[in-house]
Amino acid sequence: MAAVWQQVLAVDARTLRRTPVRGSYQLQAQMNRAVYDERPSGALVPTSVAEASRAMAGDTTLSENYAFAGMHHIFDQHVDAAVPRLQFANDDKHLLACCSLDSTLSIMTLFSSPPSVKVILKGHAGPVTDFAWSLSNDVIVSTSKDGTLRIWNTEDGRCIREVRDPEASELLCCTFQPMNNNLTVGNSKHLLQVVNISTGKKVKGGSSKLTGRVLSMSFDAPGRILWAGDDRGSILSFLFDMATGKLTKAKRLVVSEGSPICSISARSWISREARDPSLLINACVNKLLLYRVVDNEGTLQLKTSFPIKHGSQPLHSIFCPLMSFRQGACVVTGSEDACVYFFDVERNTKAIVNKLQGHSGPVLDVSFNCDESLLASADSTGMVIIWRREQK
Predict the structure, then answer these.
(1) Domain count within the chain
(2) What domain range is 137 assigned to?
(3) If both were cysteines, with which of 86, 218, 338, 348 could 264 make a disulfide (CB 3.0 to 4.6 Å apart)?
(4) Does 44 map to a domain?
(5) What is the largest CA-CA distance in the chain?
């Protein structure tokens, strides 16, 4: 019996990893790469291990697991200007950043009592549309409608480098390639391009055209496939050459003609029960969409959808970063009805796990810290709310 439990605990120790959100981690990416190569889609992990894991975790439901004690803090430094994106630093509990249409970004620390604004990043001459933390959290890269990409020191807020778009187009979104120093940037002239942030130069062969303005992007965990969404309702997959940074078009899916693809989030495992590479999509169709990735070229197949109010605002959603020991798996999304919704993606009916109310405008983005003890949400009025999970 002791030998059996040692085997179970050893397996759980190996599988207890944080699943990457934006800005994947190399160890997790290598793990997922091996799994991607060795297991067919939908292949099960040993169910005896999963049952033992749930037994150790207790009998709490997903609804109980994602119960919140209420608001921990409210930030209002960007009041009267929308906060379109916010993101906790990689593997960090207390460092949070957000960008604003008032042309600035903020880095906030939640460790202090009360939480406070650590530094405000000033320099853009237009609305800041997106940003990304580097793997080590020492820099943030931001994009703006002023046509520039800026690299910031997160400790003192200095702008280390400014990179201007050669075509002077608005820069609308960005994301790091999980395994190297390359950043992919999308602009208003339908162009997706790979930039080396060490040099500030575009990578040869690392650009491609979409059918519309590039609004959202996400890599799979190994960094082999990039999905990009535009304002005409299309999602294109690209194969990324790890050695050269070259992009090769693979597949195209029209989600809904003319409906902007506001958010794309990739995940290799939905739950501990089975590998199921998936994309979570916000597409202005009054639904949150979950697609299954069915092959190595990023082909998508609709798995399920969840009703939310979403007709025009640039809403975003995330997979919960921790794979639960419990039955089910959660995603979180903003909504135009000023609420934050939690859905169990494995339920066919009554999928809402929780609903948070407190914002006074459409909730544009949400982000969990690494251990899911805190959730941050941002809205169109510039308010950022920090929610604290109930301690079990």
Answers:
(1) 1
(2) 62-389
(3) 218
(4) no
(5) 67
